[in-house]
Amino acid sequence: MGWKRVALIVLAAVGLSGCQALQKVDQGLYQVAESVSERDRVTGQRTLSMADRSAQIANGNAYIEQLIAAEKKAGRPVNAAVDKQQYQRLVRVFDRVHQISHLKDERWQPLLIRRDSFNAFTTGGTYIVVHSELMDTLKDDAELAAVIGHEIAHTVANHVYERQTHAQVSALAGSNSVSRSGYQAAFTHESEREADRIGILYSALSGYDPMAASRIWQRKYTAEGNARALFHHDHPVNAERYQEAQAVGQKVMPYYQKNRINPNAQALLDNNVLWRKNNAEAAAGEGGGVSALLTTALGAYVQHQGAKQEELRQRQQAHFVKSVEAGLKLESSRKASAQKLETRWRYAVRGPVLKNLVMGLYFKRDNKVERYVDHVPGYIKPGQVFAARFELPQGVTVDDLQRYDARFYLDDVEPAR
């Protein structure tokens, strides 16, 4: 009920301002709106943020500068010292994507650090940090461009400070949702989806194949599955991510000119197949205060409801996966070869017909958890027996699995509609 109360207060202010026509009241309301919101660079709508751009840059860059200092103190290389060719490649791809972004007038710096993880991130300032394993994994420049566009988009859409301000305002509004880890994950999940969409548009406008993002997540899904059965997730799972990236890529494909920045890029940032930017806002004292506060409150309420719906969707999916997993019975397992394990399972409960079932195998080796999956083709009916086969990595044989305390799990499944 918290966000509804906020909206009602704003609506009351609208009535007061309209009745009394007080210019100063409207100016005051505009100042209030400015203190807790900003105009979204993508859509033009008001979004929550208690930090202006200068504060965002100062705070975000301070964190990265501490990271750089820590890397140097520990004797770890950065940028060209990590890998000269990969750093030059990173700068080259970054420059082209940044050139058509909403923040093209800011001076940004890509930072390459040595990490054995597939990751890149921004902190709301003017740095983008990329891990060396991601550079080594993504051989295609278009795929690297998709990741870079996604990270720039997080700052463009102000996701870091939007999330912080939303949490603070939600607490003041009496909402209990923000205290739930599932809600927090769902809120971030929706920000990740938005960053994906913006990043794919950036790819197309900067002359990189907009279908590249979908290829990244399709490979991830094939190799890793979704791994979402037992917990809330703050990123779209691999299958959802590649499907949505594919759909967005197809939509923006007409803007793609191979290896060439679209000459209409700046106009297309405001008006494209994904959104149409609203640049109209009344001035303070002329209804702008009422409008800014109202759109801020209502926009935050819609965002709040969207996160709650995503939280519920994730909870329902996790419950369904757990219920199916409880009904799966291991019928047999055999060593098909030294590094191939074949298992047979029975779907031993009354329930819906299943599809897109992914079985997983995990174990811990060298203090690192390793997961391997098998995608089971076709539909599975109650009582049906199906096979799941696992190809093990180099250095691990089927005979080793008991020593590694290997365990099976249901990675993901859907009811056949």
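Above is the first protein from milestone M3; the second protein from the same milestone is given next.
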Amino acid sequence: MAIVIGADRLGNIENLLDECGLSVLKHITGRSPKAQAGNMVSMSHAKVMILFTDFVGHNVMRNFRKQAKKQNIPFIACKRTISDVARNLERYGFM
């Protein structure tokens, strides 16, 4: 299971995650002020957190990175492109 932050729609990225044996546990678009505050997200079943850097700011990224580190799950920051997501998933051993 993956927590995805950023982007309004995931498109083909959801299919890529399925191919890697991951499903989307939670998708946070990052548009709402609550999401931008980086409120604590339940990660009890998450295997990875993916944040799209072209859709959120530095503070949002910092807050979610801290959460992932605190809960000891991999944090992937990448652009919202299939190739970038695939490359990062491979780097962390999900492909």
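Note on the second protein: The chain has a mean pLDDT of 87.
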